[in-house]
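Contributing: when you submit paired examples, paste them exactly as shown. First protein:
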Amino acid sequence: MDDREKRINTELSLLETMYPDQVQYSAKAREVKYKSTTGAFVLRLPDEYLDDSGDVPVVLSASAGNKDLRGSLKLKIDNLPLGEEVLDSIISAFDELAEEAVEQSPVATDNDRQSGQTTDGKATVIIWLHHLLNTNKRKLALSTSSSLGVSGVTKPGYPGVLLYSGEARAVHSLVNELKQQNWQAFQVRLEDDEEWMLSHGIGIIEVETMREVVAEVGEARKDVFLEAMRMKNTSRRHIPPDN
């Protein structure tokens, strides 16, 4: 195995850790498949991928909200540097495109109406971040112009976690405001139409560990939270220590 293939395998291994059950790779076809709650794409890695004079991944398919995103994703990829690992950047770019497509999709809007989902009532949203380190982003996660009427808990580090609950309109407004920031990965892992009562009470607080987030959620919601964090199998044993 040459150095380039080793780099590809390392990159894919990291992606599978960051996006469990969402990334698949076919070595024979050299195809990378990614699927999220909003959309999916398939890329082909050219033989010269990671060569300084090589080429970037080729978009075979990309869609979200019944919208074809192949052209839009290709434009994003064309601006990425040659010779560097860019699959994580492609996933982040696609997630942004997919979220925009779903928000603008008439079909998605009709489905929301049919299912009775509105911005009234209560809501809880759990967000997984690749990381939350930047001081300004941590401050925004704790208090933005949309945070009035929202209670929640945030955890910085790797990964970052944001959990917000309260009036549905305020919660969704806060989430949309935070989406506008430049995140390496911003994934809504759970949306619930009920308000979660957090142990600290009213307001948004920051904690240091995943264990503290679980304590805030409480036993009644513990398994739901761990499942959203892809940690469900550990819920009956222990919460792994944060990095």
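Second protein:
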Amino acid sequence: MVSVNGRLVESVPCSDMRPDVQAAKASVDGRVGFHAQLSLDDGDIVRVTTPQGKPLHHSPWLYLPPESDGWLPASLTANHPEYSGVADFSESLAWKRFQPLFGQLGDISAVKFDSGDGPMVAHPGMSPDDAGRIHRFYKRVLTPAGIASPALRHQQGIGERQMLIFDFFPGKPLDRHGPGWEAWLPAVMVELERLQQFGEQHREGLKVRGGRKPPLVNHLFRQALGDALRWDRAHGERRFLLWLVTRLKRLPQVLSHGDLHRENVLVDTERGNIALVDWDRWDYLPVGFDLARLMRGLAGDTVEQLTGGSHAQRLGVVGFTYLLQRHDRPAMVNSEEGEALRRRCRELAGSLL
């Protein structure tokens, strides 16, 4: 399903037969790829999804003319349907040109703009509470702890909304580096360890306040417990799920990013630097959750090898990997991989007794 600026323009069937895809049952009939002719203007946003609404990898796409050098004129925000949410901010900051930046769900989560003193990134449309929490977290944790993250310059309000403005980090998300992205994991783990150490030293001063977004780990626990109570979905793992959730909840609670998927890790390959972004879900969470979410999609034995660390951290990573894998691939539960993960969880838990 192909849409331009939120409007469906056509439904296109996949046309290229791939025997390897068919053998792997990765599509209904083994066909992949499609061809569609579109009439586009500068700044148009193309989204491609399955009929069920699931976006294709790296969708949406932004159309830019070759001569644009990646920038769009700020005047485009005044009447373009995709940029109406940032029009007020562009007027307030006197932007000359901008680039939309997309979040994991394909929405415009931030805007890169030319400030006259160099590129910066604005996150518009926040509530005062959300913006204030992130601002305080930068001031109390990220800056004093020296966590690799773009510097927060200031907070600005327009009407009932707030905007946070950061330095621009010249990198691209870890998820878009293709094969070999795992080479950056040690650098990420260094930052997580620094965050955990700082969080332990200042735990009393970092109490989590009400009104926050609920931790994503809670949703994972609820789903697992719900499946454990439904005989038609538990597939014989009911007792294991109840045991696993109990064990994971008993793990040490460490200061965590809370939403560390690979789109939230930026990598500058030229300078060898990384930056962790989108800290609105920070919390004290079971050790291993951040790493399991970061490595989502990798096999369980691979995840544990890449992680290392204490038995508690290994159990957290392997246990949360199991919960994430069964969510993404329900058939995994009855596979050899699923049995191996369950066995490894029990072994790691036994070593902690």
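If you have annotations for the second protein, write them as plain sentences, like these:
The chain has three domains: 1-64, 71-168, 172-352.
The CA atoms of residues 257 and 282 lie 5 Å apart.
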